[in-house]
Amino acid sequence: MSPTSTTTLTGHGVWQPALLTLVAKVCSDAAAAGRPVGVCGEAAADPLLAPVLAGLGVSSLSMAAPAVADVHDALARLTLEQFRSLAAAALGATAPAAARGTVHRTGEAFRAAADDGKGC
Length: 120
What we know:
This protein has helices at about 15-30, 50-55, 65-75, 80-90, 95-115, and strands at about 40, 60. It is mainly α.
């Protein structure tokens, strides 16, 4: 997307399975080269998407200060294995709404299991 484009990835755009697949590929290639991958802006500031990005291999998230606490809380309640599971669920979706919905339901199940002391 060009810097002057009026098209943005708002709403479900960041949940496009094809876009998430691209992020996974970039992260995989970067890891093989020993390089980090960062995401900034609204995508990084989404507490539901941040664990997915971590599961895809994103190593840093940059966001506006007001979003930090919510994203921190979302990341702190899950394990790396759960991040990867959420990423796999999002990648397996056929549409943005399905990806977001699946991640939401799966994340809630992980948190409920952790709150019950059962783990997941």
